[in-house]
Write a structure and sequence with these properties.
mainly alpha; 19 helices; 10% strand; elongated
Length: 489
Protein backbone atom coordinates (compact mmCIF):
# COMPACT_ATOMS: atom_id res chain seq x y z
CA UNK A 1 0.00 0.00 0.00
CA UNK A 2 1.37 3.41 -0.97
CA UNK A 3 2.45 5.36 2.13
CA UNK A 4 -0.03 8.08 2.98
CA UNK A 5 -2.57 6.86 0.39
CA UNK A 6 -6.10 6.59 1.71
CA UNK A 7 -9.05 5.59 -0.46
CA UNK A 8 -12.22 4.98 1.51
CA UNK A 9 -15.76 4.39 0.31
CA UNK A 10 -19.24 4.93 1.61
CA UNK A 11 -21.69 2.60 -0.10
CA UNK A 12 -25.28 2.69 1.18
CA UNK A 13 -28.18 0.79 -0.34
CA UNK A 14 -31.06 2.98 -1.57
CA UNK A 15 -33.74 0.95 0.19
CA UNK A 16 -35.24 3.44 2.63
CA UNK A 17 -34.88 6.79 4.31
CA UNK A 18 -31.35 7.77 5.46
CA UNK A 19 -30.77 7.21 9.18
CA UNK A 20 -28.25 8.45 11.74
CA UNK A 21 -26.10 5.31 11.37
CA UNK A 22 -25.83 6.16 7.66
CA UNK A 23 -24.59 9.63 8.59
CA UNK A 24 -22.13 8.46 11.28
CA UNK A 25 -20.49 5.94 8.92
CA UNK A 26 -20.32 8.52 6.11
CA UNK A 27 -18.79 11.08 8.49
CA UNK A 28 -16.04 8.78 9.78
CA UNK A 29 -15.04 7.75 6.26
CA UNK A 30 -15.11 11.33 4.98
CA UNK A 31 -13.05 12.63 7.91
CA UNK A 32 -10.55 9.78 7.58
CA UNK A 33 -9.92 10.72 3.93
CA UNK A 34 -9.79 14.46 4.60
CA UNK A 35 -7.35 13.95 7.51
CA UNK A 36 -5.00 12.02 5.21
CA UNK A 37 -5.14 14.81 2.62
CA UNK A 38 -4.61 17.47 5.28
CA UNK A 39 -1.42 15.73 6.41
CA UNK A 40 0.24 15.58 3.03
CA UNK A 41 -1.09 12.23 1.88
CA UNK A 42 -3.62 11.29 -0.77
CA UNK A 43 -7.10 11.12 0.71
CA UNK A 44 -10.01 10.14 -1.54
CA UNK A 45 -13.64 9.69 -0.49
CA UNK A 46 -15.62 7.47 -2.86
CA UNK A 47 -19.43 7.52 -2.75
CA UNK A 48 -20.87 4.33 -4.21
CA UNK A 49 -24.45 3.10 -4.46
CA UNK A 50 -25.12 -0.58 -3.74
CA UNK A 51 -28.42 -1.10 -5.56
CA UNK A 52 -28.23 -4.76 -6.60
CA UNK A 53 -31.37 -5.43 -4.51
CA UNK A 54 -33.70 -4.58 -7.37
CA UNK A 55 -36.87 -5.35 -5.43
CA UNK A 56 -36.14 -2.86 -2.63
CA UNK A 57 -33.99 -0.18 -4.28
CA UNK A 58 -35.86 2.97 -5.34
CA UNK A 59 -34.96 6.19 -7.12
CA UNK A 60 -36.68 8.10 -4.31
CA UNK A 61 -34.29 6.59 -1.78
CA UNK A 62 -31.33 7.21 -4.10
CA UNK A 63 -32.26 10.90 -4.40
CA UNK A 64 -32.75 11.11 -0.63
CA UNK A 65 -29.26 9.74 0.01
CA UNK A 66 -27.64 12.28 -2.29
CA UNK A 67 -29.72 15.01 -0.64
CA UNK A 68 -28.63 13.83 2.81
CA UNK A 69 -24.96 13.94 1.88
CA UNK A 70 -25.35 17.44 0.46
CA UNK A 71 -27.20 18.66 3.57
CA UNK A 72 -24.48 17.24 5.82
CA UNK A 73 -21.80 18.88 3.67
CA UNK A 74 -19.98 15.57 3.05
CA UNK A 75 -18.76 16.09 -0.50
CA UNK A 76 -17.37 13.14 -2.45
CA UNK A 77 -14.35 12.95 -4.76
CA UNK A 78 -15.71 10.11 -6.89
CA UNK A 79 -19.26 8.91 -7.31
CA UNK A 80 -22.69 9.81 -8.69
CA UNK A 81 -22.91 13.19 -10.46
CA UNK A 82 -19.16 13.66 -9.94
CA UNK A 83 -17.81 10.72 -11.93
CA UNK A 84 -14.30 9.40 -11.60
CA UNK A 85 -11.83 6.90 -13.05
CA UNK A 86 -13.77 3.87 -11.76
CA UNK A 87 -17.24 4.78 -13.03
CA UNK A 88 -20.00 3.78 -13.01
CA UNK A 89 -20.61 4.11 -9.27
CA UNK A 90 -24.02 2.43 -9.16
CA UNK A 91 -23.77 -1.35 -8.94
CA UNK A 92 -26.87 -1.80 -11.11
CA UNK A 93 -24.77 -0.40 -13.98
CA UNK A 94 -21.76 -2.69 -13.42
CA UNK A 95 -23.24 -6.10 -14.32
CA UNK A 96 -20.75 -6.89 -17.09
CA UNK A 97 -17.85 -6.21 -14.70
CA UNK A 98 -19.18 -8.74 -12.17
CA UNK A 99 -19.81 -11.40 -14.82
CA UNK A 100 -16.22 -11.03 -16.01
CA UNK A 101 -14.81 -11.40 -12.48
CA UNK A 102 -17.05 -14.40 -11.80
CA UNK A 103 -15.71 -16.12 -14.91
CA UNK A 104 -12.10 -15.54 -13.84
CA UNK A 105 -12.79 -16.85 -10.33
CA UNK A 106 -14.47 -19.93 -11.79
CA UNK A 107 -11.64 -20.65 -14.23
CA UNK A 108 -9.15 -20.52 -11.36
CA UNK A 109 -11.27 -22.82 -9.17
CA UNK A 110 -11.82 -20.22 -6.49
CA UNK A 111 -15.53 -20.92 -6.98
CA UNK A 112 -17.74 -23.85 -7.92
CA UNK A 113 -21.32 -24.42 -9.05
CA UNK A 114 -23.73 -25.58 -6.37
CA UNK A 115 -26.97 -27.37 -7.31
CA UNK A 116 -28.24 -28.11 -3.78
CA UNK A 117 -31.62 -26.96 -2.54
CA UNK A 118 -32.06 -25.48 0.93
CA UNK A 119 -34.15 -28.50 1.98
CA UNK A 120 -31.38 -30.88 0.93
CA UNK A 121 -28.77 -28.96 2.91
CA UNK A 122 -31.03 -28.94 6.00
CA UNK A 123 -31.71 -32.65 5.68
CA UNK A 124 -28.00 -33.49 5.49
CA UNK A 125 -27.24 -31.32 8.50
CA UNK A 126 -29.95 -33.02 10.58
CA UNK A 127 -28.81 -36.48 9.48
CA UNK A 128 -25.23 -35.69 10.48
CA UNK A 129 -26.27 -34.04 13.75
CA UNK A 130 -24.23 -30.99 12.78
CA UNK A 131 -24.76 -27.69 14.57
CA UNK A 132 -22.75 -25.68 12.03
CA UNK A 133 -25.07 -23.38 10.12
CA UNK A 134 -24.64 -22.67 6.41
CA UNK A 135 -23.60 -24.75 3.46
CA UNK A 136 -21.83 -28.12 3.95
CA UNK A 137 -19.67 -28.16 0.80
CA UNK A 138 -21.55 -31.04 -0.85
CA UNK A 139 -21.01 -29.74 -4.41
CA UNK A 140 -17.33 -28.79 -3.99
CA UNK A 141 -16.04 -31.71 -6.08
CA UNK A 142 -18.90 -33.01 -8.19
CA UNK A 143 -18.15 -35.43 -11.00
CA UNK A 144 -19.20 -34.67 -14.56
CA UNK A 145 -21.89 -37.34 -14.22
CA UNK A 146 -23.36 -35.69 -11.11
CA UNK A 147 -23.39 -32.29 -12.79
CA UNK A 148 -25.11 -33.76 -15.84
CA UNK A 149 -27.74 -35.42 -13.64
CA UNK A 150 -28.52 -32.17 -11.84
CA UNK A 151 -28.80 -30.32 -15.10
CA UNK A 152 -31.07 -32.99 -16.51
CA UNK A 153 -33.40 -32.26 -13.60
CA UNK A 154 -33.50 -28.64 -14.76
CA UNK A 155 -31.54 -27.36 -11.78
CA UNK A 156 -29.75 -23.99 -12.14
CA UNK A 157 -26.67 -23.58 -9.95
CA UNK A 158 -25.59 -20.79 -7.70
CA UNK A 159 -21.88 -19.94 -7.62
CA UNK A 160 -20.16 -20.50 -4.28
CA UNK A 161 -16.77 -19.26 -3.12
CA UNK A 162 -14.44 -22.01 -1.94
CA UNK A 163 -13.35 -20.99 1.57
CA UNK A 164 -9.78 -21.99 2.48
CA UNK A 165 -8.98 -24.28 5.39
CA UNK A 166 -7.52 -22.94 8.62
CA UNK A 167 -8.22 -19.51 10.08
CA UNK A 168 -8.67 -15.92 8.96
CA UNK A 169 -6.91 -13.24 11.02
CA UNK A 170 -6.80 -9.50 10.53
CA UNK A 171 -5.88 -6.50 12.65
CA UNK A 172 -9.03 -4.46 12.90
CA UNK A 173 -8.38 -0.70 12.87
CA UNK A 174 -10.85 -0.28 15.77
CA UNK A 175 -10.84 -3.64 17.58
CA UNK A 176 -7.33 -5.04 17.22
CA UNK A 177 -6.57 -8.61 16.17
CA UNK A 178 -9.58 -10.77 15.26
CA UNK A 179 -9.49 -14.45 14.23
CA UNK A 180 -12.20 -16.66 12.71
CA UNK A 181 -11.81 -20.40 12.18
CA UNK A 182 -12.92 -21.15 8.62
CA UNK A 183 -14.66 -24.35 9.67
CA UNK A 184 -17.34 -22.01 11.02
CA UNK A 185 -17.39 -19.87 7.85
CA UNK A 186 -19.07 -22.05 5.19
CA UNK A 187 -18.69 -21.62 1.45
CA UNK A 188 -21.04 -18.83 0.45
CA UNK A 189 -22.99 -17.85 -2.65
CA UNK A 190 -21.72 -15.08 -4.92
CA UNK A 191 -24.70 -14.90 -7.24
CA UNK A 192 -28.26 -16.14 -7.56
CA UNK A 193 -29.27 -19.04 -9.80
CA UNK A 194 -30.48 -16.51 -12.42
CA UNK A 195 -26.98 -15.01 -12.55
CA UNK A 196 -27.74 -11.84 -10.58
CA UNK A 197 -24.72 -10.96 -8.41
CA UNK A 198 -25.07 -10.80 -4.63
CA UNK A 199 -23.64 -8.32 -2.11
CA UNK A 200 -21.05 -10.94 -1.18
CA UNK A 201 -19.51 -10.56 -4.64
CA UNK A 202 -20.13 -6.97 -5.69
CA UNK A 203 -18.95 -5.30 -2.50
CA UNK A 204 -15.42 -6.83 -2.47
CA UNK A 205 -15.09 -6.63 -6.26
CA UNK A 206 -15.93 -2.93 -6.30
CA UNK A 207 -13.55 -2.31 -3.40
CA UNK A 208 -10.84 -4.12 -5.35
CA UNK A 209 -11.41 -2.36 -8.68
CA UNK A 210 -11.81 1.06 -7.04
CA UNK A 211 -8.54 0.47 -5.17
CA UNK A 212 -10.08 0.98 -1.72
CA UNK A 213 -7.36 0.91 0.91
CA UNK A 214 -9.45 1.11 4.12
CA UNK A 215 -12.96 -0.15 4.83
CA UNK A 216 -14.71 1.58 7.74
CA UNK A 217 -18.17 0.17 8.37
CA UNK A 218 -20.59 -0.83 11.10
CA UNK A 219 -19.97 -3.59 13.58
CA UNK A 220 -23.05 -5.38 12.28
CA UNK A 221 -21.11 -6.33 9.13
CA UNK A 222 -18.07 -7.68 11.01
CA UNK A 223 -19.16 -11.31 10.52
CA UNK A 224 -18.88 -10.90 6.73
CA UNK A 225 -15.21 -9.90 6.92
CA UNK A 226 -13.74 -13.45 7.26
CA UNK A 227 -15.60 -14.29 4.03
CA UNK A 228 -14.46 -11.19 2.19
CA UNK A 229 -10.76 -11.34 3.05
CA UNK A 230 -10.15 -14.67 1.20
CA UNK A 231 -12.07 -13.29 -1.79
CA UNK A 232 -9.88 -10.17 -1.73
CA UNK A 233 -6.80 -12.41 -1.60
CA UNK A 234 -8.09 -14.33 -4.60
CA UNK A 235 -8.64 -11.09 -6.51
CA UNK A 236 -5.06 -10.06 -5.73
CA UNK A 237 -3.77 -13.44 -6.91
CA UNK A 238 -5.70 -13.04 -10.18
CA UNK A 239 -4.27 -9.55 -10.72
CA UNK A 240 -7.71 -7.95 -10.43
CA UNK A 241 -6.75 -6.14 -7.23
CA UNK A 242 -3.55 -4.67 -5.85
CA UNK A 243 -4.09 -4.96 -2.09
CA UNK A 244 -6.40 -6.41 0.53
CA UNK A 245 -7.92 -3.37 2.27
CA UNK A 246 -7.59 -2.79 5.99
CA UNK A 247 -10.85 -3.16 7.92
CA UNK A 248 -12.24 -1.17 10.82
CA UNK A 249 -15.63 -1.89 12.37
CA UNK A 250 -17.39 1.01 14.05
CA UNK A 251 -19.37 0.53 17.28
CA UNK A 252 -23.09 -0.05 17.41
CA UNK A 253 -25.31 2.96 18.06
CA UNK A 254 -27.90 2.02 20.68
CA UNK A 255 -31.20 3.54 21.71
CA UNK A 256 -33.60 2.94 24.59
CA UNK A 257 -32.72 -0.08 26.71
CA UNK A 258 -29.26 -0.20 25.13
CA UNK A 259 -30.71 -2.02 22.13
CA UNK A 260 -29.23 -1.33 18.70
CA UNK A 261 -30.85 1.78 17.27
CA UNK A 262 -33.41 0.53 14.78
CA UNK A 263 -34.61 2.19 11.60
CA UNK A 264 -38.04 2.06 13.26
CA UNK A 265 -36.91 4.26 16.15
CA UNK A 266 -38.06 7.87 15.59
CA UNK A 267 -34.70 9.32 16.59
CA UNK A 268 -32.93 7.26 13.92
CA UNK A 269 -34.41 9.18 10.96
CA UNK A 270 -31.84 11.61 9.62
CA UNK A 271 -34.27 13.99 7.93
CA UNK A 272 -36.17 14.40 11.19
CA UNK A 273 -33.21 16.45 12.41
CA UNK A 274 -33.07 18.52 9.25
CA UNK A 275 -36.81 19.19 9.31
CA UNK A 276 -36.90 20.10 13.02
CA UNK A 277 -34.18 22.69 12.60
CA UNK A 278 -30.90 21.03 13.52
CA UNK A 279 -27.79 22.50 11.96
CA UNK A 280 -25.80 19.92 9.97
CA UNK A 281 -22.72 21.10 11.90
CA UNK A 282 -24.43 20.39 15.21
CA UNK A 283 -25.67 16.95 14.20
CA UNK A 284 -22.29 15.94 12.74
CA UNK A 285 -20.59 17.06 15.96
CA UNK A 286 -22.91 14.85 18.00
CA UNK A 287 -22.60 11.88 15.65
CA UNK A 288 -18.81 12.15 15.88
CA UNK A 289 -19.12 11.64 19.63
CA UNK A 290 -20.78 8.25 19.09
CA UNK A 291 -17.46 6.45 19.24
CA UNK A 292 -14.82 9.19 19.19
CA UNK A 293 -13.76 12.24 21.19
CA UNK A 294 -11.55 15.16 20.27
CA UNK A 295 -10.20 15.38 23.82
CA UNK A 296 -11.07 14.91 27.49
CA UNK A 297 -13.97 17.02 28.75
CA UNK A 298 -14.60 18.59 25.34
CA UNK A 299 -17.75 17.84 23.39
CA UNK A 300 -18.16 20.81 21.05
CA UNK A 301 -15.96 21.16 17.97
CA UNK A 302 -16.19 21.93 14.27
CA UNK A 303 -15.86 19.46 11.43
CA UNK A 304 -12.59 21.17 10.50
CA UNK A 305 -11.25 20.52 14.00
CA UNK A 306 -12.33 16.88 13.75
CA UNK A 307 -10.54 16.49 10.41
CA UNK A 308 -7.34 17.82 11.97
CA UNK A 309 -7.50 15.60 15.07
CA UNK A 310 -9.09 12.37 13.82
CA UNK A 311 -7.29 9.05 14.22
CA UNK A 312 -9.22 5.84 13.56
CA UNK A 313 -7.26 4.14 16.34
CA UNK A 314 -8.95 6.48 18.83
CA UNK A 315 -12.43 5.15 18.01
CA UNK A 316 -13.94 3.33 21.00
CA UNK A 317 -15.22 -0.15 20.03
CA UNK A 318 -17.90 -0.17 22.75
CA UNK A 319 -21.54 0.57 21.83
CA UNK A 320 -22.45 4.27 21.88
CA UNK A 321 -25.88 5.34 23.18
CA UNK A 322 -27.81 7.91 21.18
CA UNK A 323 -29.04 10.67 23.52
CA UNK A 324 -31.43 13.10 21.83
CA UNK A 325 -31.14 15.61 24.68
CA UNK A 326 -27.38 15.77 24.31
CA UNK A 327 -27.75 16.07 20.53
CA UNK A 328 -30.02 19.09 21.06
CA UNK A 329 -27.57 20.64 23.52
CA UNK A 330 -24.67 20.21 21.08
CA UNK A 331 -26.80 21.75 18.33
CA UNK A 332 -27.63 24.72 20.57
CA UNK A 333 -23.91 25.35 21.08
CA UNK A 334 -23.41 25.42 17.31
CA UNK A 335 -26.30 27.86 16.95
CA UNK A 336 -24.38 30.23 19.23
CA UNK A 337 -21.26 29.82 17.12
CA UNK A 338 -22.90 31.05 13.90
CA UNK A 339 -22.41 34.70 12.92
CA UNK A 340 -25.73 36.54 13.16
CA UNK A 341 -25.82 37.08 9.39
CA UNK A 342 -25.44 33.35 8.73
CA UNK A 343 -28.06 32.44 11.35
CA UNK A 344 -30.46 34.92 9.75
CA UNK A 345 -29.86 33.34 6.34
CA UNK A 346 -30.55 29.85 7.69
CA UNK A 347 -33.80 30.65 9.50
CA UNK A 348 -35.43 32.25 6.44
CA UNK A 349 -36.59 28.93 4.84
CA UNK A 350 -38.16 27.89 8.15
CA UNK A 351 -39.93 31.24 8.50
CA UNK A 352 -41.19 30.91 4.93
CA UNK A 353 -42.39 27.35 5.57
CA UNK A 354 -44.53 28.63 8.45
CA UNK A 355 -45.91 31.51 6.42
CA UNK A 356 -44.13 34.11 8.52
CA UNK A 357 -42.18 35.44 5.53
CA UNK A 358 -42.98 35.49 1.83
CA UNK A 359 -40.81 33.94 -0.86
CA UNK A 360 -39.01 36.04 -1.97
CA UNK A 361 -38.70 38.03 1.25
CA UNK A 362 -40.16 41.53 1.17
CA UNK A 363 -37.50 44.25 1.60
CA UNK A 364 -39.21 45.74 4.66
CA UNK A 365 -39.50 42.30 6.27
CA UNK A 366 -35.85 41.58 5.52
CA UNK A 367 -34.84 44.75 7.34
CA UNK A 368 -37.09 43.92 10.29
CA UNK A 369 -35.66 40.39 10.50
CA UNK A 370 -32.14 41.79 10.49
CA UNK A 371 -33.02 43.96 13.50
CA UNK A 372 -34.87 41.18 15.31
CA UNK A 373 -32.42 38.29 14.98
CA UNK A 374 -29.95 39.57 17.59
CA UNK A 375 -32.81 39.50 20.11
CA UNK A 376 -33.47 35.77 19.65
CA UNK A 377 -30.10 34.36 18.55
CA UNK A 378 -29.05 33.42 22.10
CA UNK A 379 -32.47 31.96 22.89
CA UNK A 380 -32.74 29.57 19.92
CA UNK A 381 -31.69 25.93 20.11
CA UNK A 382 -33.04 24.91 16.69
CA UNK A 383 -33.91 26.81 13.52
CA UNK A 384 -37.59 25.92 13.83
CA UNK A 385 -37.82 28.04 16.99
CA UNK A 386 -37.51 31.24 14.97
CA UNK A 387 -41.10 31.15 13.70
CA UNK A 388 -42.88 31.07 17.08
CA UNK A 389 -40.44 33.62 18.51
CA UNK A 390 -40.59 36.12 15.65
CA UNK A 391 -43.93 35.47 14.02
CA UNK A 392 -45.66 38.30 15.95
CA UNK A 393 -43.48 40.90 14.26
CA UNK A 394 -44.61 39.95 10.76
CA UNK A 395 -48.27 39.13 11.42
CA UNK A 396 -50.85 41.62 10.20
CA UNK A 397 -53.38 42.74 12.78
CA UNK A 398 -56.25 40.82 11.16
CA UNK A 399 -54.45 37.48 11.51
CA UNK A 400 -52.76 38.12 14.87
CA UNK A 401 -54.12 35.95 17.69
CA UNK A 402 -53.12 35.17 21.26
CA UNK A 403 -51.65 31.68 21.62
CA UNK A 404 -51.58 32.05 25.41
CA UNK A 405 -54.61 33.48 27.19
CA UNK A 406 -54.98 36.47 29.51
CA UNK A 407 -57.05 36.29 32.69
CA UNK A 408 -58.93 39.24 34.21
CA UNK A 409 -55.95 40.35 36.29
CA UNK A 410 -53.77 40.21 33.21
CA UNK A 411 -56.17 42.37 31.23
CA UNK A 412 -56.06 44.95 34.02
CA UNK A 413 -52.28 45.04 33.74
CA UNK A 414 -52.48 45.40 29.95
CA UNK A 415 -54.98 48.24 30.31
CA UNK A 416 -52.55 50.09 32.60
CA UNK A 417 -49.67 49.40 30.21
CA UNK A 418 -51.66 50.87 27.31
CA UNK A 419 -52.29 54.01 29.34
CA UNK A 420 -48.60 54.40 30.18
CA UNK A 421 -47.32 53.79 26.65
CA UNK A 422 -49.95 55.93 24.93
CA UNK A 423 -48.55 58.94 26.79
CA UNK A 424 -45.01 58.47 25.40
CA UNK A 425 -43.69 61.14 23.06
CA UNK A 426 -40.77 59.06 21.79
CA UNK A 427 -40.85 55.32 21.03
CA UNK A 428 -37.54 53.77 22.08
CA UNK A 429 -36.56 50.73 24.12
CA UNK A 430 -35.33 52.89 27.01
CA UNK A 431 -38.48 55.06 27.09
CA UNK A 432 -40.77 52.03 26.85
CA UNK A 433 -39.02 50.28 29.73
CA UNK A 434 -39.05 53.40 31.89
CA UNK A 435 -42.77 54.01 31.30
CA UNK A 436 -43.79 50.42 32.03
CA UNK A 437 -41.66 50.13 35.14
CA UNK A 438 -42.95 53.43 36.48
CA UNK A 439 -46.60 52.50 35.93
CA UNK A 440 -46.68 48.78 36.65
CA UNK A 441 -43.89 48.23 39.17
CA UNK A 442 -43.55 51.54 41.01
CA UNK A 443 -47.14 52.80 40.91
CA UNK A 444 -49.13 49.54 40.98
CA UNK A 445 -46.56 47.64 43.06
CA UNK A 446 -46.44 44.57 40.80
CA UNK A 447 -43.47 42.23 40.67
CA UNK A 448 -41.76 42.35 37.24
CA UNK A 449 -42.99 38.88 36.26
CA UNK A 450 -46.61 39.80 36.97
CA UNK A 451 -46.17 43.24 35.47
CA UNK A 452 -44.57 42.36 32.16
CA UNK A 453 -45.92 38.83 31.50
CA UNK A 454 -49.44 39.98 30.48
CA UNK A 455 -47.97 42.76 28.30
CA UNK A 456 -45.78 40.18 26.55
CA UNK A 457 -48.81 37.98 25.80
CA UNK A 458 -50.81 40.94 24.52
CA UNK A 459 -48.24 42.10 21.98
CA UNK A 460 -46.53 38.81 20.99
CA UNK A 461 -49.30 36.31 21.64
CA UNK A 462 -47.06 34.11 23.79
CA UNK A 463 -45.62 33.82 27.27
CA UNK A 464 -42.15 33.31 25.78
CA UNK A 465 -40.80 35.86 23.32
CA UNK A 466 -37.78 38.02 22.54
CA UNK A 467 -36.98 40.73 25.14
CA UNK A 468 -40.19 42.69 25.73
CA UNK A 469 -39.04 46.30 25.52
CA UNK A 470 -36.99 45.74 22.37
CA UNK A 471 -39.91 43.82 20.85
CA UNK A 472 -42.25 46.75 21.48
CA UNK A 473 -39.83 49.13 19.79
CA UNK A 474 -39.52 46.87 16.71
CA UNK A 475 -43.27 46.32 16.55
CA UNK A 476 -43.78 50.07 16.48
CA UNK A 477 -46.03 52.47 18.37
CA UNK A 478 -49.23 52.02 16.37
CA UNK A 479 -49.19 48.21 16.24
CA UNK A 480 -48.15 47.89 19.88
CA UNK A 481 -50.95 50.15 21.14
CA UNK A 482 -53.42 48.46 18.83
CA UNK A 483 -52.60 45.01 20.21
CA UNK A 484 -52.73 46.18 23.80
CA UNK A 485 -56.14 47.72 23.16
CA UNK A 486 -57.41 44.60 21.38
CA UNK A 487 -56.28 42.36 24.24
CA UNK A 488 -58.56 44.16 26.75
CA UNK A 489 -61.44 44.85 24.36
Amino acid sequence: MTEGRVRVRFCPSPTGSPHVGFARTALYNWVFARHAALNGGQGTFVFRIEDTDKARSTEESYDAMLGAMRWLGLDWDEGPEVGGPHAPYRQSERGEIYRDVLAKLHDSRFTYDCYCTTDEVDARRKAAGSKVQGYDGFCRDLTEEQVAAFRAEGRRPVVRFRMPDGSITWTDLVRGEITFETQFVPDYALCRANGDPLYTLVNPVDDALMEITHVLRGEDILSSTPRQIPLHEALVELGISKVVPEFGHLPFVTGEGNKKLSKRDPESHLFMYRDTGFLPEGLLNYLALLGWAIGPDRDVFTVEEMVEAFDIKDVNPNPARFDIKKAEAINADHMRMLPIEELTHRVIPFLQAEGVLTDPVDDADAKLLELAMPLVAERMNKLTEAAPMLGFLFADEESFTLVDELDDAGRDVVRAAHEALAALETWSTADIEAALRSKLVDELGLKPRLAFGPVRIAVTGRKVSPPLFESLELLGRDRSLSRLAAAVA
